[in-house]
Automatic annotation (TrEMBL):
<protein>
    <recommendedName>
        <fullName>Amidase domain-containing protein</fullName>
    </recommendedName>
</protein>
<dbReference type="Pfam" id="PF01425">
    <property type="entry name" value="Amidase"/>
</dbReference>
<keyword id="KW-0378">Hydrolase</keyword>
<dbReference type="InterPro" id="IPR023631">
    <property type="entry name" value="Amidase_dom"/>
</dbReference>
<feature type="region of interest" description="Disordered">
    <location>
        <begin position="317"/>
        <end position="354"/>
    </location>
</feature>
<dbReference type="GO" id="GO:0016787">
    <property type="term" value="F:hydrolase activity"/>
</dbReference>
<dbReference type="InterPro" id="IPR036928">
    <property type="entry name" value="AS_sf"/>
</dbReference>
<feature type="domain" description="Amidase">
    <location>
        <begin position="85"/>
        <end position="302"/>
    </location>
</feature>
Amino acid sequence: MFWWLSTAAERLQRKARAKRAEFEAKWAQPLPPVAPELDAAKETKIALELSIEDLVALMQDGTFSSHDVVSVLAKRAREFGGPAGVNALTDVLFEEAFAEARRKDRDRQRGGGESDAVGVLEGIPLSVKDHIDVKGTDSTTGAACRCFRPASKDALVVELLRDAGAIVLCKTNVPQCLMLPETSNNIWGVTSSPWNLTRSAGGSSGGEAALVAVRGSLVGIGTDIGGSCRGPAHFSGCVGFKPTPARVSGKGIVMPSKTGKMGMQAIKATAGPLANRVEDVALVCQAWWVNKMWARDPYVVPLPFDHMAYRRGVTKDAQQWERGGGESRLGMGERGGKKKRAYQGGGRSDWAGL
């Protein structure tokens, strides 16, 4: 019996090492050179200053290209999101992302830079949590036994984001079997807070939150059942949102069970976005809450994005912020700001550009 357990453990360790070696081989491949006209000021504007809506508009009018945006985000993901930084990544799709960006740029040029069907995320690179299926990549849930089992198709939430124009840049780290408030496993190791590498990034969407906070991704797709988007967002100082579970499809989201299916029915997990701006999170919800979501998944409530309710909520929050009423419902507030500053002591706050 003990011999069998020892053999099984060694087999899983070999699998984990092989998966890590595969990642390191991808990681060693150089990125395409950044365009000469993309100077430091423009890189800063893309990564730190512009909202997704602004970036989409600037790509449509030719100020930036999709290739420019992918270049900047891939560069930051490599510099700050990798093993020498917060260690947030489990797979990189840089080659595919650059190819998709070039295709979008060609299509835009052929169309004269204008289109009646520009997606709300057109040309925007994003990251996806490890256990959400992206075609051709593993959804390991942080467990070695799930390595080398690539998904045959995208999860529905990823498919809808691609329909809205998004480009998948990478996948991000999770705790083993997901159900922990930190991010660590035997394949990829520990993901750290961008504010202090000796502190945790939280979990289970810790990889997403850390990468978004260092601006290695403009928006990340995590999952949440009891705080797995919201907690890491608080740890890293970004925005995390858990939609009502019946609003978002779980198709293609792998769970740590024998079948990979969702087993928790009383309190359900759901995919949720993370970003550095509330309005960027809202754009993901707009991309999701369309007819295709509930047409493809009958368990999803057919309820479109309510623009008026969203605007009322943002207006109310802004008024609360101006009155100085403590913590904002949609932002961090004064107390959150103090906590964020307290974390900077042992880390490199410049990673997040804050």
